[in-house]
Amino acid sequence: SFAYLFYILQKSSAKKAFINSTVFGFGYFTTGVYWVYHALSVYGGASFFLSTLLAFLLILALSCLFATPAYIINRFTSKDAKVRRLTLLYPASFVVFEWLRGHLVFTGFPWLLLGYSQTETWFNSLAPIFGVYGLSLFVYFMSGSIVALFFNIPRAQQNALILTPILLIALTIYLHHKSFTTLYNKQTTAI
Questions:
Q1: What's the CA gap between 146 and 151, in Å, rounded?
Q2: How many helices (H) and strands (E) does the chain have?
Q3: Cα 75–76–77 angle (5° rounding)?
Q4: Would you call 155 exposed, middle or buried from its count of C-beta atoms within 10 A (0-12, 13-18, 19+)?
Q5: How many angstroms separate the CA atoms of 74 and 11, rounded?
Q6: With a threshold of 0.90, does the pTM exceed it?
Q7: CA distances from 7 to 17, 21, 89, 143, 154 (A)
Q8: Which end of the chain, N or C, is less surrounded by CB atoms within 10 Å?
């Protein structure tokens, strides 16, 4: 879970943050990109060794997209900025790197965007307004907020960390029954 990753990152040096995020990303992408090996070996006719090597390199490269923002944040911000790291910097940078992965890296590989995990939940009502990256930001923010509550922080920040997710959940419940599309023609087309 990203809450656990954020907890580990908050306590890590920049170097350990890079290593921990790489390991986390490797597990994350291994479970979701295993099909690359299958596609290369079965449909591409590549050997077992080549398919395994190429899948491994792809997963490792994608893992670095988790490790890079973690390293940068832990290297250039103070450990005392816990709330800012957990609720703003980690979530925003992870979404930026999701966007980079989906648009620039490898000419676009928008696979396993965190926002897609919310398509069958109540939070999917935020998707028409904020899109998949907004949903990703929401999940990262919620994860960071949960972790921040376990640290010794001022009461005002604790209240904000409790109130903000409650307001986001209330918005989700309000939007759940709203329709963002209109059906104009009830006829179906037969082919």
A1: 10
A2: 8, 0
A3: 105
A4: exposed
A5: 9
A6: no
A7: 11, 11, 14, 9, 18
A8: C
